[in-house]
Write a structure and sequence with these properties.
4 domains; 509 residues; globular; mainly alpha
Length: 509
């Protein structure tokens, strides 16, 4: 991995020369205290955050969009911390933005908070405020959209109905199973007051994976809520769990508990199929041939066929890692075949479900989350068909393309190609990663281009998932998985956004 000084040198060079010069080389960020890795991780000895968090939330809620960056920058210069800003962002979102009529759209102001945080802590310290300031502006955009749609605000919980600790868990499970919004709301409040973060999210992992509505956003909200709460502190859990329970209850038509909607069928089938996995199913050999075999199933099989085949392959003694490799690569392949919103969410929801798979300590939940992700890939493929032409590209046979440049200039060449020829950029990136199996220079540069040129929440959500899951894919498949990402990354020739300039002006003012 590059030392910090080398990373800085690379990020100032070639591909970024013009943009960085125009923005003062981001030097303004050196004039404020950098966000340290320690500050962006929850101190286990800290029980509560500063009690002044409510005024910070109100600052975000009440300040006009065109003034917010300046006011937050002023507060940071006078002592407001990274963790306080992150907590206020998430709390302002869940209190002011309704996760309906779909867990997406304007609600991305909430969904993107963890992605912005991941981008922040993965960046050099001097860049770590940039994604957070982007998320502040995104909140104001979503807040305005919510006002136009009726100005929803989370109401106080019905205190008289909140159950004691010994009853909250079962009440929550019963309410969620029966899709009872009112009962789920008070039960979620009871969980926040009586359960630990692990105990509460053991339940949410299951319900985030149970149906294919909202193209994976339910699972994404679960994973991102858990991860952000680990940073800002469990004392903020109640409004977040209430928002999460409300979002997971979203459905169309009648009560799903009494119906047989297509979005619910995989869960119903997989509850029986999960028991057929061998007892030691999480162990086994990593088998690239099994990954290739399963990719073929994902390309043409139904969700039911894919789940049955996954169980059959694992019961041969193959590790689930080989199926995860196929899921990640298969999601990337969908993006090449039809770049756009559906395939993008095949990748981001797989990231969220893989997180739940690793985080749960319940084997039944792990089996269900795994099989649901298997089922979702063919469903994403089907959703793409309804949107138009789907290509036939295969990531496992995508040809590598030699690079003209070497060293840092090779990375620059790929980033430029992303803006003008994504297919060529993908082939060159395969060659590049084969020669640079730990491509931290490309990853750092790609992330900084999101800061400089990203325009929407999906830029952050997608890049955070892609660059994290690069490490979750077996080494043999990593180059091809990362190559798929160029179909939704930003290139060095893309138009710059105005947020970095606004952030610079806010801190320099």
């Amino acid at each position: 991995m590059f030392p910090q000084s080398t990373r800085r040198t690379f990020l100032k060079s070639t591909a970024f020369g013009g943009a960085m010069t125009g923005l003062g080389d981001l030097g303004f960020l050196s004039q404020i205290e950098s966000v340290s890795a320690a500050e962006s991780t929850l101190d286990p000895n800290v029980v509560r955050l500063d009690p002044s968090i409510e005024p910070v939330v109100q600052l975000l809620e009440e300040t006009p969009r065109e003034q917010l960056l300046e006011k937050v920058a002023a507060r940071i210069k006078s002592g407001l911390t990274y963790r306080e800003v992150l907590a206020a962002l998430l709390l302002a979102g869940v209190r002011n933005v309704q996760p309906r009529p779909s867990v997406g759209f304007k609600f991305h102001a909430v969904l993107v908070v963890n992605s912005a945080h991941l981008a922040s802590i993965a960046s050099p310290p001097e860049h770590r405020w940039l994604p957070i300031f982007w998320a502040l502006d995104e909140f104001k955009s979503s807040q305005a959209a919510d006002v136009r749609e009726g100005n929803w605000t989370m109401a106080p919980v019905k205190e008289a109905s909140v159950l004691p600790a010994d009853k909250a868990r079962q009440a929550f499970v019963s309410a969620m199973d029966s899709w009872d919004e009112g009962a789920a709301d008070v039960a979620a409040a009871g969980l926040a007051r009586s359960a630990t973060i692990d105990e509460a999210f053991e339940l949410f992992y299951r319900f985030g994976a149970r149906d294919f509505r909202d193209i994976g956003h339910k699972a994404i909200f679960v994973a991102n809520s858990r991860r952000t709460l680990e940073v800002i502190g469990w004392q903020h859990a109640e409004p977040i769990l209430r928002s999460l329970a409300y979002a997971l209850q979203h459905h169309e038509g009648g009560n799903p508990f009494q119906g047989n909607a297509a979005a619910d069928l995989p869960w119903k089938r997989n509850r029986e199929l999960a028991s057929k996995l061998r007892k030691d199913w999480t162990e086994g050999r990593v088998d690239s041939a099994a990954t290739t075999e399963f990719l073929a199933v994902l390309r043409s099989g139904s969700d039911e066929e894919a789940c049955a085949q996954a169980v059959e392959i694992i019961n041969r003694g193959v590790s689930p890692q080989s199926i995860w490799d196929a899921l990640f690569v298969g999601a990337g392949e969908l993006l090449i075949r039809q770049p756009g919103i559906v395939a993008l969410h095949a990748m981001t929801s797989s990231n969220a479900l893989r997180y739940a798979f690793q985080a749960t300590s319940n084997d039944e939940t792990r089996r269900m989350v795994f099989l649901q992700n298997v089922a979702f890939l063919p469903l994403f493929r089907g959703a793409m068909v309804s949107r138009g032409q789907v290509g036939t590209a295969r990531l496992d046979t995508l040809e590598a393309i030699p690079l003209d440049a070497t060293g840092p200039n090779a990375c620059t060449e790929i980033l430029a190609d992303i803006s003008r020829n994504r297919s060529q950029a993908a082939g060159k990136l395969i060659s590049y990663v084969k020669d640079n199996p730990d491509p931290v220079d490309f990853i750092d540069a790609a992330r900084l281009l999101i800061f400089l040129k990203g325009t929407n929440s999906h830029d952050y959500k997608f890049s955070a998932a892609l660059l994290e899951d690069f490490q979750h894919v077996s080494p043999e498949w990593r180059a091809r998985f990362l190559a798929a990402g160029v179909y939704n990354l930003r290139g060095s020739g893309d138009r710059e956004n105005q947020l970095v300039k606004r952030t610079r002006d806010a801190f320099m003012g």
